[in-house]
Amino acid sequence: MSGNSGKNPVPVDTNGITPFQQMLASCSGALLTSLFVTPLDVVKIRLQAQKSPFPKGKCFVYCNGLMDHTCVCTNGNSKAWYKAPGHFNGTLDAFIKIVRREGIKSLWSGLPPTLIMAVPATVIYFTCYDQLRAALRVRMGSHAEEAPLLAGALARVGSVTVISPLELIRTKMQSQRSSYRELSEVIHSAVRNEGWRSLWRGWGPTLLRDVPFSAMYWYNYEKGKAWLCKHNNVREPTFAITFISGAVSGSVSILAVLSAQLKLFLSSKASSSTLSVMTKIVAENGVGGLFVGFLPRVIKVAPACAIMISCYEFGKAFFRKHNQERLLTSTT
C-alpha cells in the first residue's frame, strides 16, 4: 500500500469540482473580463464627456464588463478621470491619445471601486447557476434540458437581490462624498428616512432587464456549446467552443429580450411608468428609437460574455483535472 493511501480525496459535487473552486473560477474570470472590457467603456465615457461635459450632480453609467454602475459627478474638479482634458476624433484616436498622454493605466480609470460590487455579484451568480442547474437537472427528469433556463433566472434573482442594496449604498456614498468609515451612518440614515425597502429601490426594473436576459443566455449557451461539441466530435468543450458559444448567446439573448420588451409595449401590458417612457420614445423618435444603442451594447456585451464564460469554463476544467489527479494519487 502506498504512503498516499491515508490522504482524503477532494470532496467534489456532480460537476467534478467543489463550490469553492467554482467561486475561484468565476472570480478569476470576472477579473480578466473587467481588464479586457473596461477600456472600451472608459473611452466611451471620455468621448461622451468631450461632447457634453458632466456637470455637478450628473450621473453616468460605467460598465466594467460585469455589471453597470451608476456614477455621480460630485463636483467641478477637472482632475476627475472622466473630465481629463483631451480632444479625440474617434474611438481609436481616443485610445492612442489617452495611452500616450496619461499612461496605459488610465484605460482602467474608476475600475477598483466598481470591482468591490461586481466581483462578488459575479461569483454569486455563476456559482448559484451551476449549483441550481445540477440540482434542477436531477429534479426535472425528462425536462432537464430546460434546467439552464430556470437556473439562469433564479441565479440572477439571487445575485441582484444581494447586490442591489450594496450598489445603492455605494451610489449614495459617492453622491454625498462619504468615506467607508461613515458607511453605517449612510445605511442608518437611508433606513430611518425611507425604510428598509428603500435599500432595494430599483430592484424590480433591474430584474425585468436582467432576468430574461440571464435565462435566455444560459439556455442558448448550453445548447450552442452542446451543438458545437457534437459538430466537432469532442466530449469536453474547448476554449474556442465556449468563447464562440458565449459571444453568440450574448448577442442572441439581447435581441430576444429587446424583441420581447417591444412586444410587451405593443400589447400595452407594461407598467404605467415603463409604458409612459416607451411611449415618449416612440412619439419623439419612432419605433426605431426603442432600438437606439442596440449595436453598441452588442459590441460590448458579446465579448464580455465570451471572455467571462470561456475563462470560467477554463478554470473549472483546470480544477476538475486537478481533483481527478488527486483522487488517482490518493487511491494508489
Explain this structure:
The protein is mainly alpha-helical. 67% of the residues lie in helices and 3% in strands. The protein contains nine helices and two strands; from the N terminus they run αββαααααααα. The protein has helices spanning 19-51, 91-102, 111-140, 147-175, 183-194, 203-231, 239-266, 272-285, 294-330, and strands at residues 59-63, 68-72. The chain has a two-stranded antiparallel ribbon with strand order 1-2. Strand 1 (59-63) and strand 2 (68-72) form a beta hairpin. Helix 1 crosses helix 3. The longest helix is centred in the C-terminal third of the chain and has 37 residues, at 294-330. The radius of gyration is 22 Å and the shape is globular. It is a multi-pass membrane protein. The chain crosses the membrane at residues 107-127, 239-266, 286-312.
